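Dear V.,

Thank you for sending over the compound details. I've combined the ligand you provided, calcium ion, with the protein sequence from our construct and run the structure prediction for the complex. I'm sharing the raw inputs here so there's no ambiguity about protonation or stereochemistry in the SMILES, which I know was a concern on your side last time.
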Amino acid sequence: MRTALHRRVVRFVTTSWILGAAIGCAVAVSAVICEAADQPAKKIPVILSTDIGDDIDDTWALALALQCPEIELKLVVGDYGNRIPRATLIAKFLEAAGRTDVPVGVGCESPCKAKFNQAKWIEGYDLEKYRGKVYQDGVQAMIEMVMDSDKPITLVCIGPVPNIAEALRREPRIVEKAKFVGMHGSIYRGYGNNPNRAAEWNVVCDPASCRAALTAKWPVLITPLDTCGLVVLRGEKYAKVRDSELAPTKALMENYRVWSEAHNARGAKIDPQHQSSTLFDTVAVYLAISEELCEIESLPIRVDDKGMTLKDPAGATIRAAVRWKDLGAFEDWLVDRLTKTK
Ligand SMILES: [Ca+2]
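Below is the predicted structure of the protein with calcium ion bound, written out as structure tokens.
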């Protein structure tokens, strides 16, 4: 006859075994999930080409890319002139974010008509002291990374694209090994959801380079103003980002304040306490990972010399995120990425 103590011991041992097995499984499953998220081989290799320092949304896009476990950020290159200030800003930001594992590239020469608004944030920072790798010829580094990669690299391009046009000139075969995801154009709507289409900044600053990028024989996906022009964080969503203690997000907020001061000195009225500016470039980072929240159309697009992206049967067929399925869900995703530890 079994004693009460024996029954308790058997129950304890059995329960412990079941619990142990369950915990073991949970640990094994979470280990697999963590491993999958951390394995470079399963991540999406991305090169970010950015006119960071002009509008602040590039800095949001960089912080976001650093916070996406799906992305292996292989290189960040400044584009559209202002070569050294942009590379310096990228380097200081990566350092502040604790990500000096990411190399910095200095972009190609290009005339630039934008004002560099984050100059104050990089005062006293020396690019040569960056603890990570700096490629003085960022375009060549981009080409070599693409050509040497085992799998296609996604070029996330969030500014005018003289770098990309130069890369295509130097090595046309990159089209066989890369995808282009850009924040470019205006298909049905203009700035601020205006029904009149616009010559969008990233196109109109250098229409010839944009035409080269969009007509190249690689997969092209863009977020035009139709989708990216609608993204602004306000209220509780914005407050979560503003108050985040994560290193990349804190560095982002520092930059947003510096940028706002520079803008406000020229008559703008931006209050970084209450809302973001329009976060155009963050959508391009999202599209490198997922298309789920957008309606995508395949369209023949011609880039004219005035910077318009026109539907034209003679144009190159590209894919464009022309409408949101769920903009609120995108905003939630963005906030989540910028405020949660990975
Ligand atoms: Ca930009």
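A first observation: The two ends are 54 Å apart (CA to CA).

Warm regards,
I. M.
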